[in-house]
Amino acid sequence: MKEFKHISVTETAALQAEGKVVIADIRDEQSFAAAHIDGAYHLTNGSLVGFMQQFEFEQPVVVVCYHGNSSQGAAQYLAQQGFEQVYSMDGGFESWRSQLPFVSDSGA
């Protein structure tokens, strides 16, 4: 796959419930610590190499940002690196936050 696909919050939650996807959150450290999707991997420039070593190219990946814009570029990058099933979650974390539970590292 050389192109990423779009995916909804509902579709992402369903894949996550089945254990079939890794969620890669590309938001900044403070935003990720304040609130994120349970089990999400905080994907940054500094953690990219570890991410690529930890997950197989066959592993479906959903990239999440704030509103679903920045995630598209990151998803395209992962697809170009060889990940076969890459998605950008429409609406981003803010859409997830308004619909589904999330976790907070800060206790908020």
Automatic annotation (TrEMBL):
Report which superkingdom the organism of origin falls in.
Bacteria
Give the EC number(s) under which this enzyme is classified: 2.8.1.1
Checking InterPro entries in the record gives: GlpE_sulfurtransferase, Rhodanese-like_dom, Rhodanese-like_dom_sf, Thiosulf_sulfurTrfase
Q: Which residues form the Rhodanese domain?
A: 17-104
Active-site residue list: 65 (cysteine persulfide intermediate)
Compartment(s): Cytoplasm
Its Gene Ontology molecular function terms?
thiosulfate-cyanide sulfurtransferase activity
> Which keywords does UniProt give here?
Cytoplasm, Transferase
What's one Pfam family the UniProt record gives for this protein?
Rhodanese
**Catalytic activity annotation:** thiosulfate + hydrogen cyanide = thiocyanate + sulfite + 2 H(+); thiosulfate + [thioredoxin]-dithiol = [thioredoxin]-disulfide + hydrogen sulfide + sulfite + 2 H(+)
Q: Which family does it belong to?
A: Belongs to the GlpE family.
* Function recorded in the entry: Transferase that catalyzes the transfer of sulfur from thiosulfate to thiophilic acceptors such as cyanide or dithiols. May function in a CysM-independent thiosulfate assimilation pathway by catalyzing the conversion of thiosulfate to sulfite, which can then be used for L-cysteine biosynthesis.
Q: What is this protein called?
A: Thiosulfate sulfurtransferase GlpE
Source organism per UniProt: Rheinheimera muenzenbergensis
Tell me the lineage of the source organism.
Bacteria, Pseudomonadati, Pseudomonadota, Gammaproteobacteria, Chromatiales
